[in-house]
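Case study.
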Amino acid sequence: MRGMWVIYRKELADHFSSNRFVILFALITMVSLITTFMVGTSLKKELEGIARPSLVFMMLFTSTGDLFSLAQFIAFFGPLIGLVLGFDAINRERINGTLSKLVAQPIYRDAIINGKFMAGVVTIKIMLLSIVLLISGLGLFTLGVTPGPEEVGRVLIYLIISIFYISFWLGVAILFSIFFRNIATSALAAVALWIFFSFFVTFGASLAANALVPIDQNQGADAEKLFDHAQVQKAVSLLSPMKLYSDSTSTILDPMRKTTRSLILIGPMERVSMDRFNRPLPLGQSILVVFPYIVFLILITLICFAISYLAFMRQEIRSG
Amino acid sequence: MDTSKIVVEATGLTKVYGSKTAVDNISFAVDRGEIFGFLGPNGAGKTTTVLMMLGLTEPSAGRVKVMGLDPRFASIKVKQKVGYLPENVGFYGDLTGRQNLLYVARLNGLTDKVAHDRIDRALDAVGLKDEGDKRAAAYSRGMRQRLGIAELLIREPDIVFLDEPTLGLDPDGINRMISLIQSLSLERNMTVLLSSHQLHQVQRICRRVGIMIKGKLVAVGTIDELAKEKLGVEQDTFTLEEIYMKYFKEA
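After joint prediction, the assembly is written out as follows.
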């Protein structure tokens, strides 16, 4: 335990004093501030004249304004934080010749990887927390609405999901830094995986759906087939952590969303009756909707760390 | 031989990587307080042997005891008693020499007060007193090796394993390193196990040597014993180089 804390402290100090952290943090803060400001001003215009606007505070995170919403931005670029913090965690020590020295100290070997992972996660936590607080503060300024307890709860859950999401990518980066001896290789491999899962899985999903359940455009839509098609597409796209994340956070952040499904087959009468009950979901119900997503996201984060852990424990440590 | 004097004992130690036998059934013992030299060409299995003694690599067969402990099962206890200076020892370039030492001291569970005290003395002993607050990235090779020795000093182990400690140093650096290694044994009563292929220096400080070639330990003994056995001379006219070459050609 002692070794882990010492390594954790050093790694944390390294993160905070490193240039890459400063650059990344500056970039993300800047983008967050700009989007919030724009969202804030456009919201203000829209809300003019509405007597009792509801759920305004959450819109700070979900409203797209001119460019993109903050939640979308984190879904897109959040992984980069994890990757940048972890891609050279182990192989840099190996190249510097400090790894063989480190494992020769009277500490358990897992202290090294635990300490590094923990330091990364804490860095992510601090980064996200400060961004969310910044945005909330700026939102209070521009909009003048205070969040109620439910909104605070939603933001907190959003924060937790985001930490797991980015920690997953940190785990991937550390895993690659164990497998690849070359720093550039591990960085490129991690970025390639990020691009693949974030962008190509979505294309792959529609390809897979078209292949498995082809829908003939000329024939009339068969509800059964349409449904199957959507099911396949959804199942494949859930392989992407980004999809998991954005689906779960958008439901958490937007109480008007009652399902993660994109395609809902309902008849006109059904729609009318649904509209009658068009009230925001309470927080507990929102969580219930995305609970499987959250569990899955936490699961892949843990699995990823477990693989890194095992790989590192079994790896030969050679000085040369 | 009095067995309580033995601090490192290997019996039938073997390490196989795939189809290659890196260390082939070697047995030797090192006495308390002596300087033991591991000689052999590159790739002879010297580093692998050291790693097995530290419990960083599992032996394929045979066993090794360090201070009476098996490194496979009591790795932490062994590492508390053993200091290891790897070949090309690395330091964190962003940190100063002093900060590098402090990190190691903390990993060894020293309080900061004790650590600072020992770091001051260690830096003094290796002649880096004035360079302690420079970033390690700016250190020359000789300075890095001496910082490595300082690291061993603050840990105060019973045994130290030095892997090619004089490799790539200039003549002055080699001399300083050699006298530092000697002082570990003479002044601090540490047992020193060093691997090297620079025979001239090994001859100057080692009491006994083991010659390793292609994973096999072809000879163990004092330099005089080996000279008598291989060259048939008893006077001081031989060099370790001659003995070594003889073994090398036979292998």
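Observations recorded in class. The mean pLDDT of chain A is 84. The first helix of chain A runs from residue 2 to 17. We will return to this complex in the next lecture.
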